[in-house]
């Protein structure tokens, strides 16, 4: 299969030196790229800034912003069989990026934020016969929110995990289906979970 994988955080710039982001390390997405390549698949990894080296055997695209990630995904999506969206994409960005550096004045600063594009929902809307697997990191009402994301983003399955996964080498996840059923519970190193998820996709989603 030709698999698109997204990984890492995105950055949304306030000015030329400051940005909004999150603490995603990219470990899960990179582990998935390594596992998919090891299983013989053709992998495109599109990643936000991380401290990780691009995995061998993968086509790699490094990006910063959510818009850049979306553009990179859309450029390769027509040639892919499916996507695993493991990136921790910023949900909001400043409405306006200020040129230069905002000077400190001793007063507060109010930011006007707008939503960023929903990458997986955009890909899902044009999926055709391709498969989509998403990730949902939730802290409250985790199951209900993950199912809503699965439906809204046109996913075949979604991996539910929790804030404890951020920056950790291990994780506990639940794989949810559109029916609301749980297809699997996995705990262990992210590299081990990646192998299990790729095997599940091969068995259940590959054409």
List the defining traits of the structure above.
5 helices, two-stranded antiparallel ribbon, 8-stranded mixed beta sheet, globular, 207 residues, 28% strand, alpha/beta, Rossmann fold, single chain
Brief sketch in words of this structure:
With 207 residues, this protein is α/β, with parallel strands linked by helices. Helices cover 27% and strands 28% of the residues.
Strand content: 25-35%
CATH architecture tag: 3-Layer(aba) Sandwich
E-strand count:
12
Number of helices: 5
Biggest sheet architecture: 8 strands, mixed
Low-confidence stretches: none
**Gap between N and C termini:** 9 Å
- Structural class comes to alpha/beta
Q: Give average pLDDT, whole number.
A: 94
Shape: globular
Q: What is the domain total for the residues?
A: 1
Report the CATH C-level class. Answer: Alpha Beta
* Topology order in helix (H) and strand (E) letters: EEEHEEHEEEHEHEEEH
Rg over alpha carbons: 17 Å
Q: Which percent range fits the helix content?
A: 25-40%
CATH topology: Rossmann fold
Strand order of the largest sheet: 5-4-1-6-9-10-11-12
CATH level-four homologous superfamily name:
CoaB-like
């Amino acid at each position: 299969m030709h698999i698109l994988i997204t990984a890492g955080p995105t950055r949304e710039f306030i000015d030329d030196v400051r940005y909004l982001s999150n603490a995603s390390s990219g470990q899960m997405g990179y582990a998935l790229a390594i596992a998919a390549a090891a299983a013989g698949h053709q992998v495109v990894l599109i990643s936000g800034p991380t401290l990780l080296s691009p995995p061998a055997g993968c086509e790699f695209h490094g990006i910063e912003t959510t818009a850049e990630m979306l553009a990179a995904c859309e450029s390769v999506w027509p040639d892919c069989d499916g996507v695993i969206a493991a990136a921790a994409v910023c949900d909001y960005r400043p409405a306006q990026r200020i040129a230069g550096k905002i000077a400190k004045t001793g007063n507060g600063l109010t930011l006007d934020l707008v939503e960023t594009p929903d990458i997986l929902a955009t890909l899902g809307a044009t999926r055709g016969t391709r498969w989509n697997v998403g990730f949902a990191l939730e802290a409250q009402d985790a199951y209900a929110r993950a199912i809503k994301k699965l439906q809204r983003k046109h996913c075949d399955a979604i991996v539910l995990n929790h804030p404890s996964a951020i920056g950790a080498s291990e994780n506990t996840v639940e794989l949810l289906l559109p029916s609301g059923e749980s297809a699997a519970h996995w705990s262990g190193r992210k590299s081990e979970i990646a192998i299990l998820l790729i095997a599940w996709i091969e068995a259940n989603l590959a054409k």
